[in-house]
Amino acid sequence: MHRFANPARFQRIARRILPFFAGATVLFIGFGLYYALLGSPADYQQGETVRIMYVHVPAAWMSLFVYASMALSSAVALIWRHPLADLATRAAALPGAAFTALCLATGSLWGQPMWGTWWVWDARLTSVLVLLFLYLGYIALVDAFDDPERGAKAGSILALVGAVNLPIIKFSVDWWNTLHQPASVLKLGGPSIDGTMLRPLLLMALGFTCFFVTLLLLRLETALLDRKIRAVEERVS
Amino acid sequence: MSLTSRAKTAKRRRLWAVFAGLSGLGVAAALILTAFSDNLVFFHSPSDIIAGKVAPERRFRLGGLVEAGSVQRQSDGTTMLFRITDTAHSVTVTFKGVLPDLFREGQGVVTEGMLNRQGLFIAREVLAKHDENYMPKEVAEALKASGQWKSGQGNPGTSPAPK
Questions:
Q1: How far B118 CA lies from chain A's nearest CA (Å)?
Q2: Chain A positions with Cβ closer than 8 Å to B
Q3: Which of A86, A209, B65, B82 has the lowest tally of Cβ within 10 angstroms?
Q4: ipTM of this model?
């Protein structure tokens, strides 16, 4: 891992793989949207409203995945003082918050016609709202210190503590009675979703993942350049 | 002690600190959630009411399946009367207002309201609960035709509630 700790080496690799991820994003989301909106059937109960799911579920998966990677890079930053880990946590926070907000917004739009309400305080919805606040809290905290290193350390601890929420979100629908339906894809006994509907869902999920990697590489590049500028400024002044 | 080995022990110490902190936090969260588990329940079942777990004239949520053949519209045209069952027990519910799209016989619903002294549940709000099954209409019909439809897997077979 320490081979990639060198920011210069990382930048060289990142620049090389960035176009592939950007291309894959366009490809997967393009085909995903075609199958989600046109090339898949309506649901037997929900009708056309099921198409909201093709954005909602990948956004929800990403909100968990991004937070898990932030917790991991926070642990790496705290234990091994890896020079890129703090920057990676910081770079992932805003896209993660955006995915969570998208998940909550699309879920609300689906809930109004299907459940008959925009919002309920059940265990799944509430724990995802807590996740959004964890993201926003992290973003506010890391910039609240004059010394960026202290900010990064406080942020890393917050990100690690918040990771307790991830299993709660995933299993909330199994542990308690919730209005939100239980898992359809990642569950024992295989997915309970028809193949024609699973295809756009997985394409969109791959597209969202590639989009996140593209954003992360771009944001890390910006952060590294920003750090260089600041170092030069300090030397000049 | 050499410099590299001192750096190594510091790393190991931090690794253990993070590990111990996280496991302590995990245990604490698990204990809190177990302690609160009764309060985290979004709705009660008809069996809970029969078992006397819910006091009358107190607002709570009642969840279950709409019993097949139980949905009636009252003579005033807006009040609905139906029974909610968890297959063991059932409770009669009355509701005045607009029902969600997914409301139909055999469908899972969550209603909010209170029991009156006669044991009739007066709902202020009715929410439809969706299950985890997603399939096109043709597949649902084919499953029913071949007799592979599992009961309790939603129930599109019954007609939508009279509107």
A1: 27
A2: 41-46, 50, 53, 75, 78-80, 113-117, 120, 122-123, 160-161, 163-164, 168, 175-179, 181-184, 187, 192-194, 196-197
A3: A209
A4: 0.72
Residue contact B156–A117, C-beta within 8 A: no
Helix (H) or strand (E) holding B83: strand B79-85
Strand ranges inside B2-141, DSSP E: 60-66, 72-73, 79-85, 90-96, 108-115, 121-128
Residue with tokens 């029974």: B83
Convert the pLDDT of each residue in B60-100 to its tens digit: 888 888 988 888 888 777 888 899 988 888 889 999 888 88
Q: Which residue among B25, B37, B134 places its CB closest to the CB of A194?
A: B134
Cβ of A184 within 8 Å of Cβ of B132? The answer is yes
Q: How far is B104 from chain A (nearest CA, A)?
A: 10
pTM of the predicted structure, to 2 decimals: 0.85
Among B88, B125, B131, B139, smallest CA distance to B107 is for B131
The answer to whether A63 and A96 are in contact (CB under 8 A) is yes
Verify whether the Cβ–Cβ distance A193 to B135 is below 8 Å: yes
